[in-house]
Amino acid sequence: MKPVAVVAVAAESALGSDRAAYSVGAPGEIPTTAIVEDELLRAAGLVKPRVARAMAPLDRAVESAESLLRRVLESIGRSLDQELANWRHLRVGVCLGTSSGAMGSLTRALSLRVAGEPLSRPLARQSPYFGPLVAVGSALGVEPSESVQVLAACASSAIAIGLGCRWLELDAADVVIAGGYDVVSSFVAAGFESIGATSDRTPAPFRVGRDGMSLGEGACVLALVRGRDAGAGCRRWVRGFGASADAVHVTAPDRTGSGLARAARRALEDAGTSSSDVELVSAHATATPYNDPAEALALGAVLGAQVKSAVVHPFKAVIGHTLGASSALELAAAFDAMERGVLPAALGEGALDASCDVRLLGKNEAGTPRVALKLSAAFGGANAALVASLEQGNGGARAPHAVQIATIGIPALELDAEGVAPRTRLTAAQLARMDRLSALAVAAAARAFEAVPELDRARAGVVVGTAGATLENNEAFDRRFRERGAKGAEPRRFPPTSPNLPAGQVSIAFGLGGPSLAVGGSLAASIEALIVAHDLIAAGDTEAVIVVAAEDVGTTVRDVWAAAGWPLPAAGAVAAVLRKRDEGAALDRNQLKEAQRRALAADGRLGSAPGYPAFLAALGVEHPESPSHQ
Q1: Which segments in the chain show pLDDT lower than 70?
Q2: To the nearest 10°, the Cα dihedral for 303, 308, 311, 314?
Q3: For residues 629 and 606, what is the distance between their CA atoms, to the nearest angstrom?
Q4: Any idea what DSSP says for residue 579?
Q5: Structural domains in the chain?
Q6: The whole model's pTM is what?
Q7: If we measure between CA atoms, which residue out of 527, 614, 508 comes closest to residue 578?
């Protein structure tokens, strides 16, 4: 790709605001952790109540992701006023990633439901995953021309930054605000503790005896522009992006590291650079038993002999695992290290694990790292990688690919596990155990794939669009949490609270190795998914994408949507396969944007209910009961 300039960064973490939030320190310094024992998590009954809070002692009961996001967006706006004075008159795209979105608002809404009290309209409208995005327009002082919320768990902001780069490359925007955010709630902390992912001591990535991570919270956004629009002195560049799926397991990494390695290779190829140029690796480094060795294997496969000299920086041990914000904050830390002339140290004690053959430093050293590789992995087997540098490098512009509709499936309202299983890599029993949203997505994908048996699935991706996301699963987990306390939180119920799980389940069921993510930035999430899939294909990130519109509509969604005054989305799912055009008519992105605009202007109505009917209408299907295969 043609290098993208980073003209401003705004951030909040437990270390402070803006540059302090991602500072790696000076040569000779030894990092210290911002992770501490948290009174609120202790009071909620957690056994390992350690977290790195991003915000000063405020009333946590009323603190929200929206307020954190607003502060960071206002900061990036002030920075852009200095760097690019006319930016509000340009086409501004906003692409943000999150893992838990408006979980604080949602759990407050759920507590009111339990008490039998009515939901106010403001709280109801803040409770879906896209609730915090209400802050975007007022905080920036401009309504975005492009807007996407990536729901890809811990890889969310890496994918968001990658999509932002693609918008600039495809001339869909002139300025892009990309990054991610997350606030730690008792709900999320109890969930990670229930699946055994957290530690009661300082995380020790890649070292013997590591036993998990500690959560952190924060937000980080980057202002991206084309190189020609950056000042002559710009020293921060995103040069490459790659994404892939493990297609192995929804919560555990592919232990061979091959999925993550594919994403890294794609990013390096996209950047037009060699693995021998990588001097700094911003690692995912969760300090969990299986993730670290898998990441080390991926690095060894990608970097070869360079793995012995490239310094690995596991920043989560310092600021906590900030989930949807982690990739953006860690990328910013890599820029900070390169600008300071620092090879950053790795926090943690103990010997290096023999299965993690990477280079860690005990204290910061002076150096001149010029190229950094950022790695990210997530629930659902989603992987992403970015290449960052202080120099523009050799990447060049590429002609965009035309995109066409390969097929549109029949809507699925239920999962017939026995009927679907023979068309997947899963058994009927495995399918029957899925949460309803994932089951609907897999059922819809199976119907679409019937018409394209020639598709190379190992190179295809999946994008799921959902407005209601996992609210029904969240309510089920929250209910047990309230009834039994943190010690009674059920590990099997937590993974389905991640909106990226349906995309991961589709990847696993059909062996899809391309980009894997969910999106949901508005009521028109189903059309948002079509636009994102179009852009991934047009930019060459994949040759085909299975796009799924899915909504699990139960009592929680009904109550929240009714209180918000929104039209209820149609329950069920439908899938379409988009691919690089070889012949025939091309899918018009402008047509999709117009459908999205009309859907939002009508509060979700597009001559039909939101959800899969709007998805089909955007594709020109008049009779949703029997879409035609094209």
Answers
A1: 55-63, 602-609, 622-630
A2: 80
A3: 22
A4: E
A5: 4-243+252-304+318-389 (3.40.47.10), 403-618 (3.40.47.10)
A6: 0.96
A7: 527
